[in-house]
Amino acid sequence: MPDSFSTALARSDKGLHMAKETVQEQFWRGDFGDDYVDRCRGDALLAARLSLWTTILRTCGPISSITEFGANIGLNMHALHHLLPEAKLHGVEINTKAAAELQTLGFVDVHEGSLLDTAPAQQSDLAFTCTVLIHINPAELPRAYAQIASAAGRYVVICEYYNPVPVQIRYRGHNERLFKRDFAGEFMDAHPEFQLRDYGFVYHRDPNFPADDFSWFLMERNH
Q1: pLDDT band at residue 79 under the 50/70/90 scheme
Q2: Which residues sit opposite 153 in a β-bridge?
């Protein structure tokens, strides 16, 4: 995978934008993505996201706009709207069913499409992913990182399953649908204008706010 990543990173911008839809994108647009919508809800999940974002935002400056790539039905959007009620929220979501539900919230500017080719026209103060890059074809990660960097005026947050070396994990009976690696490290290598500001870990045995075992990284753009 490291060789594939390096090769992809060297592609021209023109080649990147002409790339065909990946099997991973098709997977999340389809029935599996529809079923995921019904699994991704509940008060406990929302409470965990509130705890997560309270921790992440404590060292940030003022934030008036946020873009989430892979917003699904809006658990993070709910939490951020509660914590930053005046902030303008943008959600990019590939699955039509999830995007439709996200639209009903009324406080999210919804963009239906893939992280790889869809983003709001204007930068936000903060752009982020939360367990989304793990489902991106590894060869397309440079394209994903470029999208995130372009969307972020000041901060980037990457919340993903961390591993020091790239690995593939079988996911609900499917191969090549979940990958773990050092996403934040690769992002900063590809976009050195961003530097690490804070990081942390969410644990499934947390007594109050359990969630998937993922790591989060807060990065800030150098000005």
Answers
A1: very high
A2: none
Q: How many domains does the chain have?
A: 1
Cα separation, 18 vs 160, in Å, equals 27
Both tokens of 104, joined, read 């009903």
Residue 61: other Cβ atoms inside 10 A: 9
Q: What's the pTM?
A: 0.87
Burial 182-207 (b: 16+ CB within 10 A, else e): bbbebbbebbeebeeeeeeebeeeee
| Residue 34 Cα distances to 39, 110, 174, angstroms | 9, 17, 16
CATH code at 83?
3.40.50.150
For 199, the token pair is: 């990081």
DSSP structure string for 120-163 = -SS-EEEEEEES-GGGS-GGGHHHHHHHHHHHEEEEEEEEE---
* DSSP, res 210: -
Burial tier of 2 (Cβ tally within 10 Å: 0-12, 13-18, 19+) = exposed
The count of other CB atoms within 10 Å of the CB of residue 119 is 20
Q: Please count the other Cβ atoms lying within 10 Å of the Cβ belonging to residue 81.
A: 18
d(CA 44, CA 78): 13
Question: Higher confidence at residue 114 or residue 42?
Answer: 114
pLDDT band at 14 (very low <50, low <70, confident <90, very high): very low
Domain limits for position 125: 2-221
